[in-house]
Amino acid sequence: MTRAVDELLDILDLEQLEQNLFRGRSPKDRWQRVFGGQVIGQALVAASRTVPAERRPHSLHAYFLLGGDPRVPIIYEVDRIRDGRSFTTRRVTAIQHGRPIYAMSASFHLEEPGFDHQMPMPDVPMPEDLADETGLRASIMPAMPEPVRAYFERERPIELRPVEPERYTQRTPQPPRFHVWIRATAPLPDDPAVHQSVLAYASDMTLLDTSLAAHGRTVFERSIQPASLDHALWFHRPFRADEWLLYAQDSPSASGACGFARGLIFTRDGTLVASVAQEGMIRPVQEKPAG
């Protein structure tokens, strides 16, 4: 899996064209449009490149405007909104074919002491107690729908160990919750900015799918048209994205062909390091009859 992580790091290492202008590329895979997490991660890198290193991102809020074209580069234009004594604000627009496809605001903050509390981590099995890649292939993948099986079988930069793997093998309505352990599949550099960008990339991987759990469906079905519409991410405490993180997700609501989902991300010792919220389209589509 080292090659997949190397490719992810290469994709996140944007080319600087001008002072506030960067260029990113997409991997040469089979996706018909750019993965949303890639644009989140690249936009965060672009914003971070214009901020002093001692100021770390603590939040980002973004809208997906158009599907990205993986065949051409993405241009990231950074607007330096504000440089305050403690906080820095940046706005990033991702552009393809002369049109914005993504817009993001991000805030950066100098570390300082203050009040401290957090929600407890859910009581779930540790990653070592769950099926690894070999176990998933042997026991669960044969029952998975073909698109889900293809995703788990290919080389990828983020390893997933779902706590509720039956989510992908049964079309039974379940509580709108999903827990999955995630980590980069190879060691990452020590730079905290790299770990934040990798987590931003991973935060879009399973969140929208949680809003379909209550209906016994998944975003991998051809009868579902999924698309991330907006995405918010808050960083609370330091972490490493190449160590196991629990992504605890739930979906309070789905209506009008849109699903809303939230996520809390914990280290294995129970430290809450990030929070996520997203609304996305989960439009049911009529499958064409065969023949």
Strand arrangement across the biggest beta sheet: 1-2-4-5-6-3-9-12-11-10-8-7
Compressed to H and E, one letter per element, the order equals: HEEHEEEEHHEEHHEEEE
**Terminal residue distance:** 40 Å
Fraction of helical residues: 10-25%
What value does the average pLDDT take? 91
- Parts with pLDDT < 50 across at least 5 consecutive residues: none
Shape: globular
Any idea what the radius of gyration is?
Answer: 19 Å
Count of DSSP strands: 12
Structural class: alpha+beta
Alpha plus pi helix count: 6
Describe what this molecule looks like in 3D.
With 291 residues, the protein is α+β, with helices and mostly antiparallel strands. The protein is 19% helix and 37% strand.
Keywords:
alpha+beta, 12-stranded antiparallel sheet, 291 residues, 37% strand, 19% helix
Show the helix and strand layout:
Layout: H1 2-12, E1 15-18, E2 21-24, H2 36-48, E3 55-64, E4 74-83, E5 87-96, E6 99-110, H3 133-139, H4 146-153, E7 158-162, E8 177-184, H5 192-202, H6 207-210, E9 224-235, E10 245-255, E11 258-267, E12 272-284
Antiparallel strand pairs: 1-2, 2-4, 3-6, 3-9, 4-5, 5-6, 7-8, 8-10, 9-12, 10-11, 11-12
Helix pairs in contact: 2-5
